[in-house]
Design brief:
Blueprint (H helix, E strand, L loop, with lengths): L1 H44 L4 H26 L4 H20 L13 H12 L2 H4 L2 H20 L3 H27 L4 E3 L4 E8 L3 E8 L3 E8 L11 H4 L19 E3 L4 E3 L4 E6 L2 E7 L2 H7 L3 E2 L2 H10 E3 L2 H8 L11 E2 L4
Parallel strand pairs: 4-9
Antiparallel strand pairs: 1-10, 2-3, 2-11, 3-4, 4-8, 5-6, 6-7, 7-8
Helix pairs in contact: 1-2, 1-4, 2-3, 3-4, 4-6
């Protein structure tokens, strides 16, 4: 008899579990429908708050009644407290999700699965009231999982940060593609006794600061996409102009301080030289006080050193670009890079 009674209890418990699962499943569908109705009311609220204020309580009452009726039909008990609790939990989860950008109205959110997941977990809370013990465990797990889901799902701030990061990465990739395809490379010198401690590449132009073992300093500017036949005749002089020099050309003639030679253009005092090579305009100038400080030098380069540097310049190699330019390249926002051993 004891075995028979135990078997009957097991059978009754199993049947109750099935009935409770059925209530939860149908309640989840009802909750999703209520969620959709609330989403519609939220959209209407954008044009006026009255439909939302009147409609939301109606949806909540209807959902509570539906869950209670389903429970009565499938388990024989109304479980009104469980229906009210589940409805309040769904409303709370929806409000929290809406305020934090986790759950937008279904009609405006590309992904509907977060809504479905929240509805399913909220319906699972009914297990706390439906029983038996196994279903109460399901209800407790659903409650914990619902809270964890709302905490872990990305908020609007998270999504905005993620989108910003994607946009920034796309911009970086586009800038790198441009630089590798047609960007202006810095030039460096291999002249004995000279180093290239600082470089900067922005894509359209580039700068290199060089210093000798004796502390002499010069800076080199490279301007890209230059057509010598059509460029402003004054442009090569402009890049080697110094404070106090006279202005532009007069009647088509270059100013006295800028002299054109077979190799390019030089200052009359020898403190600057420029030339066009492979579609770029390269200007070499003596270092100023800031250049001397930043490079760790001690004095401006001499005219003889400027001339020697101008004749020694070459574009950076692919390996040098990979090592010194690409890791920090950001177009016009590219920083000055301090090299080592270049």
């Amino acid at each position: 008899m004891a075995v028979t009674a135990e078997a009957e209890r097991t059978e009754v418990s199993g049947a109750a579990t099935k009935d409770s699962l059925a209530v939860i499943a149908v309640a989840a569908v009802a909750m999703f429908a209520a969620d959709a109705a609330a989403s519609y009311l939220i959209v209407l609220a954008m044009f006026g708050g009255l439909p939302f204020l009147l409609g939301t309580p109606v949806v909540a009452v209807i959902l509570t009644l539906v869950i209670s009726v389903l429970s009565r039909a499938m388990t024989g008990r109304w479980h009104v407290l469980g229906a009210v609790t589940a409805t309040i939990a769904l409303a709370g989860a929806g409000a929290y999700g809406l305020l934090n950008g986790i759950l937008n109205p279904i009609f405006t959110q590309p992904e509907w699965w977060p809504h479905a997941l929240v509805c399913l977990l909220t319906a699972g809370l009914l297990g706390l009231f439906l029983g038996p013990v196994a279903m109460r465990i399901v209800g407790a797990i659903s409650a914990v999982t619902l809270i964890a889901t709302l905490v872990l799902l990305p908020t609007s701030a998270d999504k905005a940060a993620e989108q910003h990061a994607r946009n920034q990465q796309q911009l970086v990739n586009e800038q790198l593609d441009y630089f590798l395809a047609e960007g202006t490379r810095p030039v460096v010198t291999d002249l004995a006794g000279w180093r290239n401690p600082l470089i900067r590449a922005t894509g359209g132009d580039a700068m290199t600061w060089v210093v000798s073992d004796d502390g002499a300093v010069a800076d080199i500017r490279v301007t890209g996409h230059v057509n010598e036949a059509t460029m402003d005749p004054m442009a090569p002089c402009t890049w080697i102009q110094r404070p106090g020099d006279a202005g532009g050309s007069v009647n088509g003639a270059l100013p006295d301080w800028c002299v054109q030679t077979e190799a390019g253009w030089v200052r009359g005092d020898g403190n600057g030289a420029s030339f066009v090579r492979d579609g770029t305009l390269i200007a070499v100038n003596i270092g100023d006080d800031y250049d001397i400080r930043d490079t760790g030098g001690s004095s401006p380069a001499t005219p003889e050193e400027i001339s020697a540097l101008a004749a020694s310049l070459r574009p950076m190699t692919d390996a040098e670009i990979d090592k010194w330019v690409l890791p920090t390249y950001a177009g016009v926002d590219s920083p000055v890079v301090r090299t080592s051993g270049l």
